[in-house]
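In the current project phase, our protein records have gained a C-alpha cell line. A sample record follows, to show the layout:
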Amino acid sequence: MWETAQSLGVRRALRSSVMYRALVRRRVVAIFGALSRGDYELALEGMADDVHHVFAGESALGGERHSRDAVRVWFERLFRLYDELRFEVGQVIVSGPPWNVAVGVEWLAHARPKAGEPYENEGFHLINIRRGRVAYFHAYEDSQKVADACRQMAEAGIAEAAAAPIVD
C-alpha cells in the first residue's frame, strides 16, 4: 500500500523527535558525569545567559539565580564546599518539541563535604531547554541534608558554608 506524503512526513518527524530525545538524554547523562568529576563547564556551556536556577533550602547553596554568571559562582562554591559529589543517574524523561523541551532527571548523589560526615541525597532535576539552551533548572532534593552539611562545615571553621546564598 502506498503511503501519502503527509504520513511519510509524520513518520520522519516522529523518528527525528525520538532521535532528538535520545541525544538530549545522552547529553544530560554526560553533564551529570562531568559534575561527578567536579567539571561544571559542560553544564554552563549549554545554559542561556538568563538561565533561572533554583536550589531549595536555607543554606549557603540555597536560593535562586537568574544568570549563567551567577550559576558559575554557585558551582564554584559548591565544589569548594564538597570534596566529592558523585551522581548516579536513574530515569531521564524527555518530553516536548525540540524548541521547548522538558527534562526530568532522577539521581542519587554521594556527597562528601569538606567537614562532617559523607551522606547520600536522592533528588530530581526539572530542566527546561528552549531553543537548545537550558533556560530553567530546579533541583528537588532533601535540602535539610544540605543545610546540615553546611552547618557542620561552618562549625568546623569553613566560613563559606555559613555565607548568604548566591542570588542575583
